[in-house]
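Page 42, continued from yesterday. The earlier attempt failed because a stray header line got pasted into the input along with the sequence. Redoing it now with the clean sequence only.
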Amino acid sequence: MAAVARDVIMAQSALLPDPRADGDTYADLIKLVSELAHEIRNPLSSIRLNMELLAEDVDGIAADGVANQTTRRARAKIDLVRQECDRLQKLLDDFLDFSRQERIDPEPGNLNTEIEQLLDFFQPRAAEAGVELVRFFDPALPAVRIDRETFRSALLNLLINATQAMEAGGQLMVRTRAAGLGVTIELIDTGPGMTRETLARVFEAFYSTKQGGSGLGLPTARKIVEAHGGTIDIESAPGRGTKVAIWLPAPPRLPTEPAAGH
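This time it went through. C-alpha cells are written below.
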C-alpha cells in the first residue's frame, strides 16, 4: 500500500518542470500533487483507526480464552496493515513538508545560539545512539536572517541522517565560521561515508538507501537552505565519513549578536 502511494506521488512529481524555467507552472503542479497527498491522507487516517479498533476486537477474543491460529494470523495481518499505514503517513508528511518549503519568514538571529539550542535538544538521542556531539562555534560569527522553525527542521534532519549513518556510534562535529560575505555551518561525521554513485543522487527526490526512507529529507533541507539564499554541499567517500557544509549570506547591516552564555 505504501509502495503504491509512493509510486503515484513519484509519477506525479516526475511531471514537475524545473521551477527556474516556469515558476507559475511549477507552483500549480506542486499544489495539485499536494492536494493529492491530502486526499490520500484522509482515508488513510480512517484505515489506521479501524485497524486499531479491529486489533482491540481480536485481542478481546484472545482475552476470552478462545484464541487460536486463525486469530493469531488475523492479529499479524492487522499489525502489518498498521505498519504500512505508518510508513505511508510518514511518506505523505515528508512530501507535504517538501512541497511547502517555498516561502519563509526570516528574522535576524544568532546562528550559534540557534544551533546550540538544537544540539542541546538532540543530545539525548545522540547519546542513545553512541554518538558524541562536538561543538566548535565562531564567537565572532555575523548575524544572519533565518526562519527559525524551517531552518531548525533542516538542521535536525541532517543531524538525524548523520546519527543513523553511524550505526556503531561515532563522533559528529558541528562547526560554524565566517565565510566570505556569509557564514558556514559544517556537520562532519565519522560514519561509513557514501559511494560516488550515492553521493550523486542524495538530493534526488524519493531516492533513499535507508529501509523505509522517503528520500525527501535532503531535498527538503536543500529547498530550505536555498530559500534562505544559501547553498548546501556534501563531501563523502567510503570509509572517510561525510561532511555537510551550509553557507548562508550575512546581510551587511545586521550587527553581530552575542551568543548565549557569552
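Notes: The CA atoms of residues 48 and 85 lie 6 Å apart.
Reminder to self: strip header lines before submitting.
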